[in-house]
Input
Amino acid sequence: MARYVAMLRGINVSGQKIIKMDRLRQLFESMDFTNVSTYIQSGNVIFDAAEVDIAILRDRIVHELKEQLTFDIPVIIRTPAELQEVVQDTPYPRVDENEQRYVTFLSQAPTEVALAKLDAAQSEVDEYHVKGLTVYLLIRKNYGDSKFSNNFIEKKLGVSATTRNWETVNKLIQLAGEAEAGK
Output
């Protein structure tokens, strides 16, 4: 069994695509995943699965969620090791007290043309750095005021994405490690 973290995009936001975490955990367990746990209401699920192909795993989860909930939910999956690598590779290891770090996880690598579109939107207020399937964001005001929202990044890059704050990414790593240790 391998350990994974699934990050669902756009659930429980502004009264849209509402799903209780208990129900989400039950759905994952019904797919024969084990050690299933959730973290906060934004759709973070830690679980073990026999499947090692992440694309097959993602497609299965997306299909089952659509069947059970009747709405589409994009899902991005990372291993705990991949999340640790994201944290280790941050171009923003230290931030000032007025700054916030966010991570946008991409479903696939963006094209060079798409990256150029994002570059054209560069801001003096906020910074970003793209590495592989990850967009690191350094927000100097408030994420709600930033141009670099999840929707903006998706439109510019032409790929599905989901964004988590720095604390959530680190908590997911911690929880995935605790679940692994408890096996």
Summary: The mean pLDDT is 92. The two ends are 11 Å apart (CA to CA). The longest strand covers residues 2-8.
